Amino acid sequence: MDIRRPAAFFGAATAGLVLDQGAKAAVFGLLEGPGRPETYPLIPGALHITPVRNPGVAFGIEIFPMHMILAISVAAVAFLVWLYVRSRASSPALHLWAFAMLIAGAAGNAVDRVAWGKVLDFIDIRVWPVFNLADVYICAGVGLYLLPEALLSGRGKAGAGAGPAAAPSPPPGGSQGKPPGAGR
Fold first, then answer.
1. Residue 135 — left, alpha, or beta (φ > 0 → left; ψ -120 to 50 → alpha)?
2. Which tens digits make up the pLDDT trace of 15-43?
3. Averaged confidence pLDDT in the chain
4. Which residues are catalytic?
5. Which residue in 182, 183, 18 sits closest to 100, CA to CA?
6. In DSSP terms, which residues pair with 53 in a beta bridge?
7. CB under 8 Å to 112, separation ≥6 — which residues?
8. Among 92, 105, 108, 159, which residue has the fewest nearby CB atoms (within 10 Å)?
9. Residue 6: which of 63, 68, 86 has the closest Cα?
10. pLDDT value of position 23
11. Could you state, in order of their start, the residue ranges of all structural domains in the chain?
12. How many angstroms separate the CA atoms of 108 and 90, rounded?
C-alpha cells in the first residue's frame, strides 16, 4: 500500500479507528456489567482484559476539563492531516504511517470522550495502567516517527545526534596554518 496516496493514508487511519472502536464495543458490550468478573486473564499475571472507564488523560490523570481535551484532540488531528498534506511527497514513508497511527489514536480516544464522557480502556498488562488500542497507536506512531531519525543518526548523519564534527587536521608543515619557512 502506497501511504503517499491520500486514499491509502486516510484508509489506514480509518481502519485503525474502526479496529479500536470495534474492540472497545466487544469488550465493554460482552464483559462489563454487574455480576461479571472485574478482570479476564488471558495470560494470568501478565495479560488481562480489564474494562475501565478512564475520565482522565494519561494514566487517568484529570488535568483539563473535557472540552479542552476534545479541543486538543481535534487540533492534533487537524495538525497531523496538515503535516501529511504538506510533507507526503518528501517525508519518509514511516513518518506518514506514524501520522496515520497518531490520527487513529487521537480520534479513537476522542470518540470515546464524546460518546461515553470517558475513555474506554481494557488492555491490562498488570505492571502499567490499563490502556486501549488507541493508546497503542499513539505510542507506536511516536516510535515510527522517531525510528528513521534514530536509524540515520547511527550512520553519522550530521545534526542528528552524531556528535560534534572532528576538528580538521593541521595543514602540512606547521600547526599555525603557515607553509614551512613562512614568517621566520
1. alpha
2. 999 999 999 999 999 998 899 999 999 99
3. 87
4. 121, 135
5. 18
6. 120
7. 24, 118, 119, 120, 134
8. 159
9. 86
10. 98
11. 6-153
12. 28
